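Write out this protein's structure.
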Amino acid sequence: MLWLYILVGIVSLAVGLILGFLIARRYMMNYLKKNPPINEQMLRVMMTQMGQHPSQKKLNQMMKAINNQTKD
């Protein structure tokens, strides 16, 4: 009977870890979708600080590249 308690404990722990991971992952994906880590204004400021004078076309290209990377 002891082996049954041990088995139930191990299975419960495994299920809890898996569910916890999936819930945390979904929460973070939704959070990052609602609050992107970088926006066009931040990108413009960074490029200006690096000595570049970004055009709107260049900003759009970089934002598209960043968004494509975060979709994966």
